[in-house]
Amino acid sequence: MSSRVRVSLANLAPARGASHNQKRVGRGQGSGYGGTSGRGHKGQKARSGSSLRAGFEGGQTPITKLFPKRGFINQNQKTWGVVNLERIQHWINQGRLSSSPENPITARELLASGCIHNAHDGVKILGDNATELKTPIYVVASRASKSAIEAIEAAGGKVVCKYYNELALRDCLKGRTDRVSAAPTRREDIVWYGLWRNRGFMAPKTLKELGDLPFVEERWKALSQSLNVWRKQHYIDLKK
Amino acid sequence: MLGRTLAESFSTLRVQCRAGASTSQRCMASVARPESVIPVAQPVLLDLTPPLKQFKDQPRAAGNVVALDPTVFNHPIRRDILHLCVIHHLDGLRQGTASTKTRGEVRGSGAKIRPQKGTGKARLGDGQSPMLYGGGVAFGPKPRDFSTKLPRKVIQMGMRVALSAKVKERRLGVMTQLDWPCAKTKFLNQKINELGLRKTLFITGEDNVAIGLARAINMLKSVSATTVDKVNVYELMQWERVVLDVKAVEYFERTLGKSVPIAPLPLVAEAVESTSPEVVA
């Protein structure tokens, strides 16, 4: 874009297409907006200061009122960023993803490699075409389906489901390790992550099976002890 | 490389980055560090302008060259960005005090001027209607703020483009120091004419323009002096020539420079032997 003419205040112009002339109504027929200025002839809409409220259909029951309200919205609902095992295997084959006991596959690796496009409220590993999975992988995800767990363990890998709240997930995705991620507080989560069948990170059997693997955190053992107390607690029968 | 060809052509060439120790660190920071990165940006080499007043501790201008950051001083010319910056500046200058009275503000009673029916003329209400002579203005101007917002980074790019345009047109100079100790306007005017620096804006990187220079330049219409924080794109476009001092160059490179690997300047034999505090990147 070099020019022989000096750049000065006299030869500055906006980029082509960057500016557009304003539409000015009521300024003659040649403009295309003269006369009735784009309002047509008479009627409520042609009057000054008039407009109909949004959704008004002239008195006919509007579409927003025709049908009854239904149900409620569950505030605790989670949308999982799902990924099937065959996709993970395909990524490993391409060399875009790798896992080891020191560096397991987490939401961060899946997002960075493009295996998932959005982590949403957490990552869930699903088992579509699970027979494709041949390599042993080490996965730490928010959730995993039953068939995914079976397939990963059949291939010789390990899967742990860890609780991530919003902040903890964000830290995981950004690679921040300075903060401690929060323990689950809701009863549903405490119960879910304490079960071996879900491979929950607080289930005693999960921790026993994992043993000494590098990605297992000390905190999980402590949480397992403190948050599984309810399993041994019973109501005292006062009648006896 | 450019530096090497310059070294061959000038026997006394000493490549000077900037005066002062702190600048050498800045110089090093702009050099590509990892082996895998291949620097493509070449620094802009500019002859030093002879100073208004040569001080003993400052290096001579003859045969000395200053190396400028290409991301600031060799930016692609974007006239549309300059246009945005200039329009934004001028919008902010508008006083916006044009005012008219509406039919509600014009002094007068609300009484109906003539009966609704029977006169054979048009129906009229009060005497302040915009249809009538002496009535209010319909949709006339009211005092308002014409200033617009422009993203900070667009303004920064505008500064880079403006400085680069000046360098490209050979209308930018760098002096080692901007001062006029004797504070006499007559002699300053003579010196400026000798150097051919009429219609020049002197930009100093100090907190204030040196008091001697400020006083002497005050009455001269064709030149002006200012500090780096007061400069804007419009001023750079207005003035035909711009002369910076070394501190001003440092300021612009610090605030506007992009962290892009820049090719290092070649070592020149004279530079290693000389005593003045130049640093080769």
List keywords for this structure.
heterodimer, A: 240 residues, alpha/beta, Ribosomal Protein L15, Chain: K, domain 2, two-stranded parallel sheet, 8 helices, B: 281 residues, Ribosomal Protein L4, Chain: A, 3-stranded mixed beta sheet, 7 strands, structural constituent of ribosome (chain A), Ribosomal_uL15/eL18_sf (chain A), ribosomal protein (chain A), Ribosomal_uL15_bac-type (chain A)
The total count of helices of chain B amounts to 10
Rg calculated over all Cα atoms of chain A? 31 Å
The proportion of residues forming helix of chain A, as a percent range, comes to: 25-40%
Summarize the main sheet of chain A.
3 strands, parallel
Indicate the radius of gyration of chain B in whole angstroms. 29 Å
Q: Which structural class do you get from the secondary structure elements of chain B?
A: alpha/beta
Poorly predicted runs of chain B: 1-33, 272-281
Compute the separation of the termini of chain B in Å: 14 Å
Residue fraction in strands of chain B: 5-15%
Which range best describes the helical content of chain B: under 10%, 10-25%, 25-40%, 40-55%, 55-70% or over 70%? 25-40%
In spatial order, strands of the major sheet of chain A run 1-2-4
Q: CATH H-level name of the largest domain in chain B... which superfamily?
A: Ribosomal protein L4/L1
| Number of distinct beta strands of chain B | 7
Shape of chain B: elongated
- Tell me about the largest β-sheet of chain B: 4 strands, parallel
Chain oligomer state: heterodimer
Give me the strand/helix succession of chain B: HEHEEHHHEHEHEHEHH
Order of helices and strands of chain A: HEHHEEEHEHHHH
Number of E-state strands of chain A: 5
Strand content of the residues of chain A, in percent? 5-15%
Which architecture of the domain at 81-238 in chain A per CATH? Answer: Ribosomal Protein L15, Chain: K, domain 2
